[in-house]
Amino acid sequence: MNLLGSLFSSSIGRKFLMAATGLVLFGFVTGHLVGNLQIFAAPEKINAYGHLLESLGAGLWAVRAFLLACLIVHVWMAVVLTLENRAARPESYGVDQVNRATLASRIMARTGLVVLAFIVYHLLHFTVRLQHPEWSQHTYALHDGTMVRDVYRMVVQGFSSIGVSTFYLIAVGLLSYHLAHGISSMFQTFGLKNGNWTRGLERFAAVYCWAYFLLNALIPLSVLGYVPVLSGLIQR
Ligand code: HEM
């Protein structure tokens, strides 16, 4: 059997695939957040960035296909491992065992499902622009005269709706909670969680997840005008 086949067919291989694809998705959400924070600079910044990504053409599609494959494998392995764990669980599931597992670890499947639903919604909202086809027509002139799509205006108009922003805040909160346990599990699977490192890695996961949530939340909250200093930077 080839390496990939043996990864899919053994329990430890499935855990490894889950951790490896989780690491790729973690890299994507971190990079995406850094890109999105350009909303606090002049519109030129995020619009030039969006244009640069679009100009990658086939390269961008290759990255998208790879990310989609990682997401599919991550969800698939999550379902298989959850079913395996359930089947292996003894009848009299001890109260002690339940207490020892953190809330984040016990609700991984549920937070994961909400994040999945959020991704579908988000793609329909900003990428397909189902509800607002006019967003595809809004253009912006960069300093060198190049006409590009006005991503800045789309994000500001998108988050001007309190309902949309509330959903984003809930989804990003659950994603951060999902990452809190995910990062820690990933370190365990990669064998990094041993004596000396454990505390530092746990602390990194907690700080990362709080920072991830707060920085993401600043975007809709600033557009809605709830963060005086940053809201002043948003051009309407
Ligand atoms: C406040 C937070 C966020 C903002 C402002 C934001 C903004 C955007 C924008 C502007 C796009 C590009 C749409 C386009 O022009 O094609 C996009 C795409 C995307 N976003 Fe977000 N996003 C946020 C949070 C997230 C989160 C938390 C996730 C992951 C769970 C995510 C996943 C994606 C994906 C998968 C794409 C498609 C990328 C592609 O097709 O190349 N976003 N987002």
CATH architecture annotation: Up-down Bundle
Bound molecules: protoporphyrin IX containing FE
Indicate the percent of residues in helices.
Answer: over 70%
Principal-axis shape equals: globular
What is the tally of beta strands?
2
Spatial ordering of strands, largest sheet: 1-2
- State the separation between the terminal residues, measured CA to CA: 58 Å
Report low-confidence residues grouped into runs of 5 or more: none
Q: Kindly provide the radius of gyration, computed on alpha-carbon positions and rounded to a whole number of angstroms.
A: 20 Å
| Beta fraction | under 5%
Class derived from helix and strand content: mainly alpha
What number of structural domains do the residues give? 1
Query: What is the name of the CATH class?
Result: Mainly Alpha
Q: Biggest β-sheet: count, sense, barrel?
A: 2 strands, antiparallel
Topology as a string of helices (H) and strands (E): HHHHHHHEEHHHH
Overall residue-averaged pLDDT value: 92
Q: Supply the number of helical segments.
A: 11
Q: What name is given to the CATH topology? A: 3 helical TM bundles of succinate and fumarate reductases
